[in-house]
Specification:
By secondary structure, the chain is α/β, with parallel strands linked by helices. The chain is 33% helix and 20% strand. A seven-stranded parallel beta sheet has the order 9-17-16-15-14-13-10. It has a six-stranded mixed beta sheet with strand order 2-1-3-5-4-8, with helices on one face.
């Protein structure tokens, strides 16, 4: 008997030392669950299986002896439901108790948000991009008691990056679509088309410089035009009766009407926007059950006096002109914008904030606006903005866009998050073994822009060469490249991580090329002396090849929103460098310009035409401009020389009112007084595409002997009728002239 008792005691001791069998979890949904609730359950079950390597059942009743994860508000106890603000449709609750977990929101959509947030915060899953995620392995998940009500800082949250196009990414980061919009932004031309109405009713369109323009705004003082807007908008509403928000807003141009009656409205309201708010109020009164959205953009950004938008008028307020090197509220250069924001906020609580967070003119320019993202978003929240739209690079890839869209998506829900911690955690996961070097790059480039914040205007239009004296100066470029070299080496054996590193280094290499070819920095040579004369530096050739090779593997890689590709840029660079390497018989010539060039963009006048500096794809860099003038240049080579070729580039930038010349003539003279034309060439001024191009004008002719050369480029002088700048001075821009 004594031995039996000893055995039983030993068994009891051994039993007490064994781990208790962990209760399994199951997911509980209501019997009448809708499709979104079923999706929430399926999503949670799928991730759970990936994390634990075990299936989890989805049931409508809790089983005895199991822990339950309840999905949906109807299954939550009243003590939890009463914590949730019933008017906030996106709000949700995560409640973790010893035996039960409750995930629910005010609607099925917000319950899905609760599930995804539970997966992220409690099970450490991360959605990195639309197609990439990190799912940990946890055999037996353990949860501490937890309760939190999640409420968004903005009622509407949208980011225009690649992730926004993917439903799973939007749902994970609680982003909105434009489902409620019947028409979205810049709609005047759709509601009152010039093709349909101009011939019979030119009075509907803006009077500019004494002429009614087709490509313009509308004449908002015309009551018949307002009636037509109401009528045509009604027709559009009939096609989509379920849509609740309709944009009636200015076209993406200036050209506001200058007629006396419109001017009287501008004077009455002490701003251009007053006429637009009066228009929007009239339309909103005609459709009281709809939201009428209109723009506070460019010339309408300033808030009006003595008129307020009606409650169902939505103000789409835009930051297109602002500097991004310093937070808006702290930047002296942004104070007019800050005042306009505050003035609109005093007039309306129905504001849609349209903010811009990438470099539009060049997606591959490093654009370190990271230090201001949180402060600017907080500024918008402080001014009671309800709807946030952050315009990124849409479906195109842009500098660090994976990280940027992640941070912005997070901040649009909660403006008080620790951004530095979020950025570091994302970089560590996304770049793996290369993360220390990518982190160092991220930290350094942000530090550099902050160091130059007072003097650098970081706008959304530009090229890397614009920043060559601040955060992209030569020593920084060499340092950034060294970090990328180390990052590539660290993940050389991991094809996925290496691909990510190669993508993130593209702006660094692109910037190196752009700065090298547009500046004469000793540390970054682009042309060197070879055995047979001048030749392109091998590093430039290598970087161009790598950029083209990588961009060919990813259709989302392009330089700007106009679909300018790397291969096109490569052609431009090689052409530019080939000119730079050519000998030039007018290098020491006397150059005289006989017409008036512009000093708005100073490049040295006559010196700009034979200084060995060639124009960039940006009229600010190394281009000599003529506004509303022909270009007539006379060149004295100081002695008679044999010549058979003259060439130069002209810039085409239609969106900036820069056109090719109508005709370019080359003349020669024996005495500098009487000239004889030897060759001419017409420029294509019919191309209406907005893509910026540097167009070579090359003149080959039979060899002649001369001392004097005259080049005449005939300008349009004013923008053509089809252009939105019709009647206003146009430009021609020329760079280096080469004679051989």
């Amino acid at each position: 008997m004594k031995n039996i008792l000893l055995v039983l005691s030993a068994l009891i001791v051994l039993s007490s030392c064994q781990p208790k069998t962990e209760k399994e979890f199951e997911i509980i949904i209501e019997k009448q669950a809708d499709s979104l609730m079923l999706k929430s359950a399926s999503q949670l079950a799928r991730y759970w299986e990936s994390i634990t390597d075990r299936k989890i059942e989805v049931l409508t009743e809790n089983s005895e002896g199991r822990k339950a994860i309840y999905l949906g508000k109807s299954l939550a106890p009243n003590r939890l439901k009463e914590k949730l603000n019933p008017t906030d449709m996106d709000a949700f609750v995560i409640s973790i108790e010893p035996e039960e977990i409750f995930l629910f929101g005010n609607q099925s959509q917000s319950t899905l948000y609760a599930v995804n947030t539970f997966l992220e915060e409690q099970l450490e899953c991360i959605k990195l991009t639309a197609t990439e995620e990190m799912i940990p392995k946890i055999k037996h998940p353990q949860f501490s008691e937890f309760f939190k009500v999640y409420e968004p800082d903005f009622a509407f949250r949208r980011i225009l990056f690649k992730g926004q196009k993917d439903l799973s990414y939007r749902e994970w980061y609680k982003l909105d679509e434009l489902d409620d919009w019947g028409m979205f932004v810049h709609t005047f031309h759709r509601l009152v088309s010039a093709d349909t109405y101009y011939d019979e009713h030119p009075e509907y369109f803006s009077l500019v410089n004494g002429r009614r323009l087709k490509d313009s705004q509308l004449c908002l003082s015309n009551p018949d035009l307002i009636d037509l807007l109401i009528q045509n908008l009604g027709k559009e509403m009939d096609k989509k009766p379920e849509k609740t928000i309709w944009s009636v807003s200015q076209n993406d141009a200036y050209n506001y009407c200058e007629c006396d009656k419109c001017q009287a409205l501008y004077d009455k309201y002490d701003s251009y926007s007053g006429a637009y708010i009066e228009m929007a109020n009239t339309i909103a009164t005609a459709y009281p059950d709809k939201q009428i959205s209109t723009l506070a953009y460019q010339f309408t950004r300033e808030a009006p006096k003595i008129i307020k938008p009606l409650p169902n008028v939505n103000i789409m307020f835009c930051s297109i002109e602002c500097n991004r090197s310093m937070a808006l509220a702290e930047d002296p250069r942004s104070q007019s914008f800050v005042k306009d924001m505050e003035d609109w906020s005093a007039l309306s609580s129905n504001i849609f904030m349209w903010d811009y967070v990438v470099q539009f003119k060049n997606y591959l320019t490093p654009f370190p606006n990271f230090p201001v993202l949180q402060k600017n978003i907080q500024f918008f929240k402080d001014n009671e903005v309800a709807m946030m739209f952050q315009q990124g690079s849409s479906g195109a890839w842009s500098d660090l866009s994976e990280l940027k869209q992640f941070l912005i998506a997070k901040l649009l829900w909660d403006t008080e998050l620790n951004v530095d911690s979020l950025a570091s955690s994302f970089i560590e996961v996304y770049y793996g073994g290369a993360s220390p070097f990518i982190q160092a790059y991220y930290d350094k480039i942000n530090k550099e822009i902050k160091a130059h914040a007072d003097t650098e205007f970081l706008n959304i239009y530009g090229f890397p060469s614009d920043y060559a004296t601040s955060y992209l100066q030569p020593d920084m470029m060499l340092y950034y490249q060294s970090l990328m070299d180390k990052a590539e080496k660290a993940v050389a054996n991991d094809s996925i991580l290496l691909r990510r590193v190669k993508r993130v280094r593209m702006p660094v290499d692109f910037s190196y090329i752009d700065i090298a070819i547009n500046h004469q920095f000793e540390q970054m040579p682009c042309v060197i002396d070879g055995e047979n004369g001048k030749e392109i530096h091998p590093k430039i050739t290598e970087l161009l090849h790598k950029l083209e090779e990588y961009s060919d593997t990813d259709p989302s890689i392009r330089i700007n929103e106009r679909n300018f590709k790397i291969k096109d840029y490569k052609t431009y660079v090689l052409n530019k460098l080939s000119l730079q390497m050519k000998p030039n018989k007018i290098e020491d010539a006397v150059v005289r310009i006989k017409t008036q060039y512009s000093d708005i963009y100073p490049v040295g006048g006559e010196k700009a035409l034979n200084d060995r500096l060639f124009g960039a794809l940006d009229y600010h860099v190394n281009w000599l401009g003529f506004q509303g003038e022909d270009m007539i240049v006379e060149i004295d080579m100081l002695k008679e020389k044999q010549i058979s070729e003259v060439q130069m580039n002209f810039l085409k930038a239609v969106n900036s009112w820069v056109f090719l010349p109508l005709e370019v003539n080359i003349e020669i003279s024996e005495d500098g007084n009487k000239y004889q034309k030897i060759i001419s060439k017409n420029g294509d001024v019919s191309d209406q595409n907005y893509l910026v191009k540097s167009i070579p004008f090359v003149f080959d002719f039979e060899e002649v002997s001369t001392r004097y050369i005259r080049i005449t480029a005939e300008s349009l002088k004013t923008c053509p009728e089809w252009h939105r700048g019709y009647g206003k001075p146009s430009w021609i821009f020329v760079d280096e002239i080469i004679v051989n």
